[in-house]
Amino acid sequence: MSLFGLGSRSQKTFRPKKGSPSGSKGVQLKKHIDATLGAGNLREAVKLPIGEDLNEWLAVNTVDFFNQVNILYATLTEFCTPSTCPTMTAGPKYEYRWADGVTIKKPLVVSAPQYVDYLMDWIEAQLDNEAIFPQKFGVPFPPNFQDVVKTILKRLFRVYAHIYLSHFQKVVSLKEEAHLNTCFKHFVLFTTEFGLIEKVELAPLEEIIESILQR
């Protein structure tokens, strides 16, 4: 099995890593993220660098979180199937239905892998849309940019919730729990720092999140 178990993934489920938005500026910010993460202090790593634009910082980190969740979920595609996970759930209390407001307007009950597939396609479309995520330095972000980011991150959280509450034992058996926990801690600290996900949305993993924030 290759790194993170990716040897068994389907081409459809796993997508190539997205590059940083906003041209060279995005690349510079990505280097800053990598350097601060490498130092091991996640609380410092999520803070807006002095003198940097908030939207640029949100854009680069959103791409990073998309890539991280993409890779994490790809390790589980063998175990998260329409038969094992016929609905997209986060434990027994929470079920997520899919709608993108464009091609699917009425929320659909779909299997977890179908939900994640719809989600990754939808996020990829947002990241590839230069009217939302500008690729050229100096091009302004749209007025609704932060709302789009909040929706992306809210939906990525649902994948984390499904992984933790439906597949954590499989993650442990793959010896990937430390990697999952670090990725999720980074995600929680970042979204908390900038108030990007409403508390009610975080309820399925409330205890884990409280533990992260108290450390």
Structure write-up:
With 215 residues, the protein is mainly α. 53% of the residues lie in helices and 2% in strands. It has seven helices and two strands. A two-stranded antiparallel ribbon has the order 1-2. A hairpin with a 5-residue loop joins strand 1 and strand 2 (95-96). It is globular and about 50 Å long. The protein starts with 22 loop residues before the first helix and ends with a helix. Residues 1-16 have low confidence and may be disordered.
Strand order, sheet with most strands? 1-2
Profile the largest sheet: 2 strands, antiparallel
Number of strands: 2
Q: N-to-C SSE series?
A: HHHEEHHHH
Low-confidence stretches: 1-16
Helix content: 40-55%
Radius of gyration in whole Å, from Cα? 17 Å
Task: Give the end-to-end Cα distance, rounded to a whole number of Å.
Answer: 34 Å
Q: So how many helices?
A: 7
Shape: globular
Strand fraction equals under 5%
Q: In terms of topology, how is this protein built?
A:
Layout: H1 23-38, H2 42-45, H3 54-74, E1 88-89, E2 95-96, H4 112-128, H5 145-173, H6 177-193, H7 206-214
Antiparallel strand pairs: 1-2
Helix pairs in contact: 1-3, 3-5, 4-5, 5-6
